[in-house]
UniProtKB/TrEMBL annotation:
<comment type="pathway">
    <text>Isoprenoid biosynthesis; isopentenyl diphosphate biosynthesis via DXP pathway; isopentenyl diphosphate from 1-deoxy-D-xylulose 5-phosphate: step 5/6.</text>
</comment>
<feature type="domain" description="IspG TIM-barrel">
    <location>
        <begin position="6"/>
        <end position="245"/>
    </location>
</feature>
<dbReference type="InterPro" id="IPR016425">
    <property type="entry name" value="IspG_bac"/>
</dbReference>
<dbReference type="GO" id="GO:0046429">
    <property type="term" value="F:4-hydroxy-3-methylbut-2-en-1-yl diphosphate synthase activity (ferredoxin)"/>
</dbReference>
<protein>
    <recommendedName>
        <fullName>4-hydroxy-3-methylbut-2-en-1-yl diphosphate synthase (flavodoxin)</fullName>
        <ecNumber>1.17.7.3</ecNumber>
    </recommendedName>
</protein>
<dbReference type="GO" id="GO:0016114">
    <property type="term" value="P:terpenoid biosynthetic process"/>
</dbReference>
<dbReference type="InterPro" id="IPR011005">
    <property type="entry name" value="Dihydropteroate_synth-like_sf"/>
</dbReference>
<keyword id="KW-0411">Iron-sulfur</keyword>
<dbReference type="GO" id="GO:0005506">
    <property type="term" value="F:iron ion binding"/>
</dbReference>
<comment type="similarity">
    <text>Belongs to the IspG family.</text>
</comment>
<keyword id="KW-0408">Iron</keyword>
<feature type="binding site">
    <location>
        <position position="264"/>
    </location>
    <ligand>
        <name>[4Fe-4S] cluster</name>
    </ligand>
</feature>
<feature type="binding site">
    <location>
        <position position="306"/>
    </location>
    <ligand>
        <name>[4Fe-4S] cluster</name>
    </ligand>
</feature>
<dbReference type="GO" id="GO:0019288">
    <property type="term" value="P:isopentenyl diphosphate biosynthetic process, methylerythritol 4-phosphate pathway"/>
</dbReference>
<keyword id="KW-0004">4Fe-4S</keyword>
<dbReference type="GO" id="GO:0051539">
    <property type="term" value="F:4 iron, 4 sulfur cluster binding"/>
</dbReference>
<comment type="function">
    <text>Converts 2C-methyl-D-erythritol 2,4-cyclodiphosphate (ME-2,4cPP) into 1-hydroxy-2-methyl-2-(E)-butenyl 4-diphosphate.</text>
</comment>
Length: 351
């Protein structure tokens, strides 16, 4: 089902599916047992625009820490559990708003049933997550390797197991570090289920390659109307994941708000330190919630024309900077003052 028609699922005080806005998730990389550090990171991520946070629950101490963490944060918390069904139940008892499990590694049917019963009692959704790295042997053999078809079959098998246990408050994720396999799996599964999908490219890599792989993968999937929540997985600071996720959604026209910076690629006519200036502007605009476009151009000759589609722009040339509004030069300032002039404009935008 396209995201307009997936089932609505409630996670804490947020709703996903059924055409609701796509929410951004991230995952803490602190020790969940360390309440103070985890809360601090969640608060910073919330400030940056994270809608839902996931914490690993590898120990009983981590499960118990969830109740204290929950008291100090304002976004829904998802507990991520592998292998031990008792940790899943403890996480639910300690206030997790959703749990993420792979029923394939939770063990016997009785154990899965115990987790499902606990979730059902509190009406919290279960995310059924399958990952290309842990696809069952039978499916690898059936499809001659790890394939999109195998991933889909694995996910739907697990969904069926839980549905047969009498619970259908579910979200599905199928992840692969192979971008095209991941995209194909989403295209296949979307016609076979109406449960919301959490989308991400797993183990995407460091900032550089992770961003590119996530942008390409999520771009293909989201553009087809698939996906209700997203995560950009990066080997790096989770704050970068939020920045990238917001940019991906904005680029696809799926989220409004936030200043978009466009900057020229520089050429032989560039007369200022444009790379430095563009980076400074990119940092400056993070703290404004204006839905506008700001252009940063390298020369006063072509800059204004090339910045025509932007609401606001700056261009520089031989020590002189210009301020541009909708392609018109409105002010000349010393180059060194360009950033502060731009800041002043943003501070007073729309006032
Ligand atoms: S705006 Fe000027 S410096 Fe930048 S690419 Fe265009 S011509 Fe070159």
């Amino acid at each position: 089902m396209s995201r307009a028609n997936t089932r609505v699922v409630k996670i804490g005080d947020r709703v996903i599916g059924g055409g609701n806005p796509i929410l951004i998730q991230s995952m803490t990389n602190t020790k969940t047992e360390d309440v103070e550090a985890t809360v601090k990171q969640i608060q910073a991520l919330t400030e940056a625009g994270c809608d839902i946070i996931r914490c690993a629950v590898p120990t009983m101490e981590a499960a118990k820490a969830l109740s204290e963490i929950k008291k100090q944060i304002s976004i829904p918390l998802v507990a991520d559990i592998h292998f031990d069904y008792r940790l899943a139940i403890a996480a639910i008892e300690n206030g997790a708003d959703k749990i993420r499990i792979n029923p394939g590694n939770i063990g016997s049917r009785d154990r899965i049933q115990a987790v499902v019963d606990a979730a059902k009692e509190r009406q919290i959704p279960i995310r059924v997550g399958v990952n290309s790295g842990s696809l069952e042997k039978e499916l690898v053999e059936k499809y001659n390797g790890v394939t999109a078809e195998g991933l889909v079959e694995s996910a739907l098998d697990k969904v069926r197991i839980i549905e047969e246990m009498g619970y259908d408050n579910l979200v599905i994720s199928i992840k692969s570090s192979d971008v095209m396999m991941c995209a194909k799996a989403h295209e296949l599964i979307t016609n076979q289920t109406d449960h919301p999908l959490h989308v991400g490219i797993t183990e995407a890599g460091t900032l550089y390659s992770g961003n590119i792989k996530s942008a390409v993968g999520l771009g293909i999937i989201l553009y087809q109307g698939i996906g209700d929540t997203i995560r950009v997985s990066l080997t790096g600071d989770p704050l970068e994941e939020i920045k990238s996720a917001k940019r991906i959604l904005k680029t696809l026209g799926l989220r409004k708000g936030g200043i978009e910076v466009v900057s020229c690629p520089t050429c032989g006519r560039t007369q200022i330190d444009l790379i430095g200036l563009a980076n400074q502007v990119e940092t400056l605009v993070q703290s404004y919630d204006l839905d506008i476009k700001v252009a940063v151009m390298g020369c006063v000759v072509n800059g204004p024309g090339e910045a025509k589609e932007a609401d606001l722009g700056v261009a520089g040339g031989k020590g002189v900077g210009i301020l541009i509004k909708k392609g018109e030069i409105v002010k000349k300032v010393p180059e060194s003052e360009l950033l502060s002039v731009l800041k002043d404009e943003l501070d007073h935008w729309g006032k």
